[in-house]
Specification:
Number of domains: 2
Structural class: alpha/beta
Largest sheet: 8 strands, mixed
CATH superfamily of the largest domain: Spore Coat Polysaccharide Biosynthesis Protein SpsA, Chain A
Helix content: 40-55%
CATH architecture of the largest domain: Alpha-Beta Complex
Strand order of the largest sheet: 7-5-6-4-1-2-3-8
Number of helices: 11
Number of strands: 8
CATH topology of the largest domain: Spore Coat Polysaccharide Biosynthesis Protein SpsA, Chain A
Bound molecules: uridine-5'-diphosphate, magnesium ion
Shape: elongated
Distance between the termini: 35 Å
Strand content: 15-25%
Amino acid sequence: MNRQLLTILIPMYNEEEVLDQLYLRLLQVVDEIPSYDFEFLFVDDGSKDRSLEMVQEMRTFDKRVSYISLSRNFGKEVAMMAGFDYAKGDALIIIDADLQDPPELIEEMIGFWEQGYDDVFAKRRHRKGETWLKKWTAKTFYQVLQKSSRMPIQENVGDFRLLDRRCVEALKQLRESQRYTKGMFDWIGYRKKEILYDRDERAAGKTKWNYLKLFDLAIEGILSFTTVPLRLSSILGLVISGASFLFLLYIVCKTIFFGESVDGYPSLVTVIVLLGGIQLIVIGIIGEYLGRIFIETKKRPLYFVDVYNDRKEENSGKREERSVRERVKSPL
Ligand code: UDP
Ligand code: MG
């Protein structure tokens, strides 16, 4: 019987501080699962440090290591897409390079995959090492997104998951350039299974996210999955026009029965300014969608590959693997 191949997809951007540790943790996990072949597919998202060289070094002694190096930094969403395109496995496991996703969970994921689940995702029980502000913003965001898109977008679920080949094939067809992958996992459907885990703190290095980027991602999530903001704009318009019409009737009656002395300049200005503001917001919302249409109609490729190196069929030895083990002094 042919052995099945599992791809472990690792998007990385400036992760030189954690790569050795990650590789060793992965080795430990993979050693426990002898019934499958593995491919470690690193997607170097335009790192400026030694990340790529380190992967190249791994490759010299581990045939399972392959990598794609993108021509510049495209962001994690696109890096993952590149991984989907190049992954060879019958299933694919996405894992962050920073060891926030414990690789030990992979074995459990594979167990559920064998039971016939297509998408086994890890849900965070706790968010360690994150401020209450980040937790709160994340929570609110999910609520807004779920309510407005009428889709059960999973809360507290990252990209750490196992995808069956057919999920990967489905995701490969969603080639929009403004990507919100978390929503796509739900959108494609298939049989899903949730497992709970505790998200660790970063093993080393710094997060690539800041609040501006997260805000961006949040907007992306909403705009790429729903047109509810447009609907809200129309409703707002209706409400305001309705109210102004009633107000108009009132003014007319008042003028007829009680006469009119010209005052109320301040209220006039307030109303004009308020309406002007609302109009600008609504135009802004329309503009956001229009901008997306503009970008999508260009149909640009999502990324360019600088170097791609395949998983090798021949192995050249275990000696250097030991040297990596020695280089990582910290207890795992
Ligand atoms: N990443 C990437 N490209 C980017 C930013 C991040 O490939 O432009 C990778 C990064 O190397 C890591 C994963 O995406 O493997 C998650 O990034 P990070 O840990 O910074 O995000 P957080 O865990 O804070 O959400
Ligand atoms: Mg992280």
